[in-house]
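User: My instructor asked us to take a sequence, write out its structure as tokens, and then describe one feature of it. I'm not sure where to start. Here is the sequence I was given:
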Amino acid sequence: MRTIEQILDIVCEFLNKNSLDIVGGFAVLFYGNPRTTMDIDYVIQLEDENIPLQIKFLQENGFHADEYDMRAASREKYENRK
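Assistant: Let's start with the prediction itself. The structure tokens for your sequence are:
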């Protein structure tokens, strides 16, 4: 089983490689007072073209990724902007 630090390294490498910004609790970890809840949540700008990249990354690293949920979240974001 990977440590939280190993998972964080994997996610940071992916975000940096793809020039994706971090926000929320993930950003606080880097720029604020670190604390851990023993999980990692990250938020990216979810556009239709990002979804296959996210799914591939997550699945290749042993994480669950649901394309339907990601696409629904992307649609919901778009509908809320109207």
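For the description part of your assignment, you could build on this observation: The helical segments are 4-17, 24-31, 51-60, 67-81. Try explaining in your own words what that tells you about the chain.
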